[in-house]
Amino acid sequence: MEHKAIDEEAVFASLERMTGSPALAHVIKATLDRLADGLGGPELAEVAGEVIAGRVDLRDVAQSNVYGEAFTMQISNFSAWYSQLDAEARGHFVAQARDLLSGFERDG
Fold first, then answer.
1. Most confident of 15-24, 66-75, 86-95, 99-108
2. Is residue 2 predicted with pLDDT exceeding 80?
3. Distance from C-alpha of 51 to C-alpha of 72, rounded to nearest angstrom
4. DSSP-assigned letters across all residues of 16-57
5. Cα(93)–Cα(108) distance, integer angstroms
6. From CA 42, how far away is CA 17, in angstroms rounded?
7. What is the mean pLDDT of residues 41-55?
8. DSSP state of 92
């Protein structure tokens, strides 16, 4: 499923202003696309679709209690997964994240 923003440039500009980094804005936008496709469940798909469409700002979502439980559950799941990793696996995960960000910074 493809999600088109009402004004994709405005949505990206908002993410870039919020993060201070074009690379991080690209990562967040890609994550929102995956969430909108249902990766994090129906509640996160709904909110991600609203952000992508430009109907709600991600900063407003972060400050809202409406989707807090869904975000909290996903963060808890990630924390549980991450805590099970040994030091080598954590290092590998962090290196992959850095490589991903570096790729976006390089490719602009």
1. 86-95
2. no
3. 18
4. HHHHS-HHHHHHHHHHHHHHHTTTT-HHHHHHHHHHHTTSS-
5. 23
6. 27
7. 90
8. H
Residue 38 sits at the vertex; the CA angle it makes with 63 and 15, to the nearest 5 degrees, is 40
- Element of type H or E holding 86: none
Residue 63 per-residue DSSP state: T
64: region left, alpha or beta (phi > 0 left; psi from -120 to 50 alpha): beta
- The DSSP H or E segment spanning 90 is helix 87-107
**The whole model's pTM is what?**
0.73
Rounded Cα distance between 8 and 32, Å, is 13
Q: How confident is the model at residue 1 (pLDDT cuts 50, 70, 90)?
A: very low
Q: Does 5 score more than 50 pLDDT?
A: no
Alpha carbon 10 to chain centroid, angstroms = 17
